[in-house]
Amino acid sequence: xxxxxxxxxxxxxxxxxxxxxxxIAPYADEWSAAEHFPTEVFHKLxxxxxxxxxxxxxxxxSNAGTMGxxxxxxxxxxxxxxxxxxxxxxxxxxxxxxxxxxxDEQKKKWLTPLAKGxxxxxxxxTEPQAGSDAANIMTTSRLEGDDWVVNxxxxxxxxxxxxxxxxxxxxxxxxxxxxxxxxxxxxIIPKDTPGYTVGQRYKKIGWHTVDTREQIFENVRxxxxxxxxxxxxxxxxxxxxxxxxxxxxxxxxxxxxxACLDLSLRHALERETFGQPLASHQAIQFxxxxxxxxxxxxxxxxxxxxTLRDEGKPYAKEAAMAKLASSEIAVRTAEEAVQIHGGxxxxxxxxxxxxxxxxxxxxxxxxxxEVQRMVIARQLGC
Length: 382
Ligand SMILES: Cc1cc2nc3c(=O)[nH]c(=O)nc-3n(C[C@H](O)[C@H](O)[C@H](O)COP(=O)(O)OP(=O)(O)OC[C@H]3O[C@@H](n4cnc5c(N)ncnc54)[C@H](O)[C@@H]3O)c2cc1C
What we know:
Butyryl-CoA Dehydrogenase, subunit A, domain 2, Butyryl-CoA Dehydrogenase, subunit A, domain 3, 3 domains, 4-stranded mixed sheet, binds flavin-adenine dinucleotide
């Protein structure tokens, strides 16, 4: 498989690298400390046509493909995981349900503003009693006249409470299908719909500027045409959407590992102990060598999954493997990076501490490591 970047992918990488350096790096620690969601950054990303990387031009996107998205997330994530997370969730789970399951009319109405960056996309799956066990959701929808009436609560939903948020796509359950199985349907729920309450922002260990909130639906009525995909097809649609989300979360892990390696290497070359730079001690060299090797492993797995998707080939197993490996590499690398930085690494003023706090969620969000193993085992035929 050839991973040589195209001219367009190189351009996206360079553009994002430059943008991250000038527009994000100087403020990242300040935003994180203040838990501030920097709306203006997403306006600028929209101006650069980076909010619709996976969406065809006819719906306002730039059609840059999965590798184009990987380039963007990798560069932004090396500087600020929260910004990269908000963008990746928007590009994949926030927008793809419309692209893959929406009618032409729904795409024009809902997807185009997302792809142009006028709105931020959000994906409502998780509930208080249903995360890994997604089939156990209890949010209900029922048709009453020409409206769907929705009741229930979604937990830990990102991107639905910002000034750029329009609402979300929520997975609901509505009765049973002919075979007696629970039926699921995806519904578009715009903000400001009566009965729809967006909760307070959660206080999180990391991802401090990511906007994550509870969403509560009490007799929320949305018109019949807010059904996304066929009635009863929602569960499959949500699982399918998560496949691409795994590539982008894996890319967050890669970018975090690369940032930690870079910071650790610089620190190891500057800091002296026992009369020598840290980098002269073999124990530290081995840590750095392992960090570099593991980041490279993550990169190859991600680029392979992304390339398979861009070639229209099956990629579910490869995406789950990439997410599993990359997120666990990110956690290990962040821990070693703090170790190499010593006491300074434990101080919130050190950039490496922010990456450490941002690392753990990567083995949990969009399917835990255990869930990735379940997906891989199923693909193996178990
Ligand atoms: C910051 C943040 C942002 C999020 N954003 C979103 C969002 O935008 N949209 C959304 O829908 N969700 C979102 N989530 C939810 C996230 O996807 C879930 O937290 C995740 O899928 C895990 O579900 P859970 O928290 O219910 O854990 P559980 O499902 O309760 O799992 C608890 C633990 O048990 C393990 N476990 C569970 N079942 C098994 C099993 N059968 N075998 C072995 N181990 C098992 C799990 O792997 C995990 O380690 C977000 C979460 C966080 C923390």
